[in-house]
Write a structure and sequence with these properties.
Blueprint (H helix, E strand, L loop, with lengths): L2 H10 L2 H15 L12 E3 L1 H18 L2 H6 L19 E10 L5 E9 L5 H15 L15 H13 L7 E5 L8 H11 L2 E4 L4 E3 L2 E6 L2 E5 L1 E4 L3 H5 L17 E3 L4 H4 L16 E3 L13 E5 L14 H5 L7 E5 L7 E3 L2 E13 L6 E11 L16 E3 L1 E3 L2
Parallel strand pairs: 1-18, 4-5, 4-9, 9-10
Antiparallel strand pairs: 2-3, 2-15, 6-7, 7-8, 11-13, 12-13, 14-15, 15-16, 16-17
Helix pairs in contact: 2-5, 5-7
Length: about 400
């Protein structure tokens, strides 16, 4: 999106550089990520950077109010309501599709949001790897915002994950973490902070106390860095466990599982901003739009984009048994704003926000970007293509 930098990248690109990028990631993490990594970062000009920051501030101002936080309790399914939810979220991520406004300027539009951890550790390593492979300098931008440097970000991330506890008493909780596509982030988290990725089936319980076994020793768990998504858990009943997530425990959560529901697609109809497309909970829709082809239907809580319908019909809406579990959202037209050697590329940028536990002030710190040349952003829509996949945005402020 910054023409001179993109031109320099495109002219100097060689397939061998991509191999070196993957080798660099493998050296830093322990393996090549199990998802496609894009060939380069996306370089975000100052005007779009400012719009992204403004959008984040407007959205946070509306979500982090007592009024919305009270409403958000309705989003938690009764059978998935985990006890002792924190009074305030610790983090928030906002996904923006990059499009053009009516005056032809680059413009971010909110696609989804999550009160759930993202690839916080991996993204910092990816940004460093891009810097090394491409020889990027500070004038090419930074993956961090709010005045953060890499070392400050790492310190802030450790504070988020570990709180006041020693890393050995903190676990990254997942379902079968060694086989998740996002495991590169788990390995990065372990290498950076000494926090062990644990499968739910590896957690033991004694009363309200949790522990895991490491090197033959019982290690008490004081804090749980939660990466489990209930939708996936319900699809994998084979994971018999000693601890039911609905049981009270003497351990802290970050982020508490309820925030996955409370800050989610459920939130979109409550937002009013030029950066947020019109959205309706299907159960609250009073009239079906005449232009259904301009809308997309999304399950509220599915993960990895599963269940999204882009070609919506009235018959499809009539057949939905639980409309309270679906969102109808006006489509956002992603523009191919990046000129790659293979043609125009669509971009989505995830803004990663930490919320200070004392001041409760949101800090827009870093990001995750995705490139796509397919119909949608997801991996299955970009199979066999180059210049697509997970990336990082470098912002010019």
């Amino acid at each position: 999106m910054i023409r001179d930098i993109r031109q320099r990248i495109n002219e100097s690109y060689r397939p061998g550089l991509y191999v070196h990028l993957l080798d660099e990631l493998k050296a830093r993490i322990g393996e090549v990520p199990d998802f496609r990594v894009a060939e380069s970062p996306v370089f975000v000009p100052a005007d779009l950077t400012q719009k992204l920051q403004q959008a984040c501030r407007e959205i946070c101002d509306q979500l982090l109010t007592p009024e919305y936080l009270k409403i958000s309790h309705q989003a938690v399914p009764t059978h998935q309501d985990v006890p002792n939810c924190s009074a305030f979220p610790e983090l928030l991520v906002l996904d923006f599709g990059i499009t053009h406004s009516s005056d032809g300027q680059l413009h971010p539009m909110l696609i989804e949001l999550q009160g759930f951890p993202s690839l916080f550790a991996y993204q910092s390593i990816l940004a460093q790897s891009y810097q090394k492979i491409w020889g990027l300098t500070p004038s090419d931008g930074s993956a961090y915002l709010s005045g953060y440097a890499h070392e400050q970000y790492v310190g802030r991330l450790q504070q988020l994950i570990c709180g006041t506890h020693a890393p050995k008493h903190v676990v990254l909780l997942e379902i079968d973490p060694k086989h998740q596509k996002t495991r590169a982030d788990f390995y990065a988290t372990e290498r950076m902070f000494g926090v062990t990725p644990c499968c739910l089936s590896d957690i033991h319980r004694s009363g309200r106390e949790l522990f895991y076994i490491k090197d033959g020793h019982r290690v008490p768990i004081h804090r749980v860095y939660n990466r489990i998504i209930f939708d996936e858990l319900e699809q994998r009943p084979e994971y018999i466990r000693a601890w039911d997530l609905l049981d009270p425990i003497d351990a802290e959560w970050v982020s508490h599982p309820n925030w996955y529901f409370r800050l989610s697609k459920f939130s979109l109809p409550y937002l009013d901003s030029p950066f947020v497309p019109q959205s309706h909970l299907l159960s609250q829709l009073t009239q079906v739009p005449d232009d259904l082809s301009s809308w997309v239907l999304k399950p509220l809580y599915s993960f990895a984009g599963s269940g999204v319908q882009v070609d919506v019909t009235p018959e499809m809406l009539d057949q939905i048994e639980h409309p309270e579990h679906y969102l109808l959202q006006r489509k956002v037209h992603y523009e191919p704003v990046v000129n790659s050697p293979s043609g125009g590329v669509k971009v989505e940028i995830r803004m990663m926000i930490f919320i200070d536990p004392i001041s409760r002030r949101p800090e827009i710190i870093t990001n995750l970007a995705r490139f796509s040349r397919g119909k949608l952003i997801g991996v299955r829509y970009n199979e066999g293509l180059d210049w697509v996949g997970g990336s990082s945005a470098f912002f010019v402020e």
